[in-house]
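Margin note: ligand = zinc ion.
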Amino acid sequence: MNFKDLYGQAELRRALAGALTAGTLSHAVLICGPSGSGKKSWGLALAAALLCQGREYAESCGRCRSCRLFKSGIHPAFFHIRPQGRRLGIDQIRRIRGNFYLEGGNRVCLIEEAEQMTAEACASLLKILEEPPPRLYFILLTGRPKRLPGTIVSRCQCFTLQPLKKEEILDLLKRQKGLAPEKALLLSRLSKGLPGMALKLAEDPSFEGRLAEASELAYRLAAGGWTSRELLSLAESLTGREDLAFFLELVCLFYRDGLIYLLCGSEELLVQPSEAKRWARAASPNALEEAMEMLQKLVQELGETNVNRRLALEGTLLQLKRRFASCPG
Ligand SMILES: [Zn+2]
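Resulting structure:
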């Protein structure tokens, strides 16, 4: 993994390149960003650069013994820990701690989902960070920096990964997955600038099926004809979906396309124009816009803890039924 293979993140790229070449990198780096934003790729590229014996500017060379060991996953000075189950316990740090104090070249410890460290693990890490042995570097990755103790965060050089631009995601999908432009465009929108999510969707064999399901649901809701009882049973079956929030975003996407079709013709559509025409016949622009708002609000609610998924779904489906029933308007 090399920095040049990674997309975007101009600030992080500049900071790491400057610190690596000047030899001023902090002994603890914290990389924050949501799931799929590329934290691990950046962390691994930084680890490889720190361990490389023939670094070229800020990049690992990919050829030296150290780089070969790193690529094979057996570098003796690279310690990679991640939660076991839900927690990252002190035993995981104790097991490798002795290695941190050995003489020799750089050593790197990459900690994934650092926010899952137990209080004891945090205390142990903090002790090391307070008096770091020379040439030992920690790279902490987290999607929830607020859950890390402030005492640890304050000892780290912190970076937050930014969403990639649409063009960057398109280029990534084209280069790595060879996707057709229409599908790449659709995935770039759905991935919200998260390269990991875009790649995951591109590899997902169930994606087309889920898209078709979402299209059907969006159309049937807009076309009406469902009784309240049917909607309640639909809510029950949707509640069990693991991908519920994402699935609702797909439904929302179809309403967005319907709206664009109604307002601007067939330009800029993410799904096939024939799909969009179905919405045009089924609903008015106002109803589609309000339906999108209702779905987005529901997706937001589902992201909160303690929400009753089924009740929230039932409420929104009934609201959608009422809104589309009063079309046009
Ligand atoms: Zn190398």
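The pocket of zinc ion is lined by residues 52-54, 60-61, 63-64, 66-67 (CB under 6 Å).
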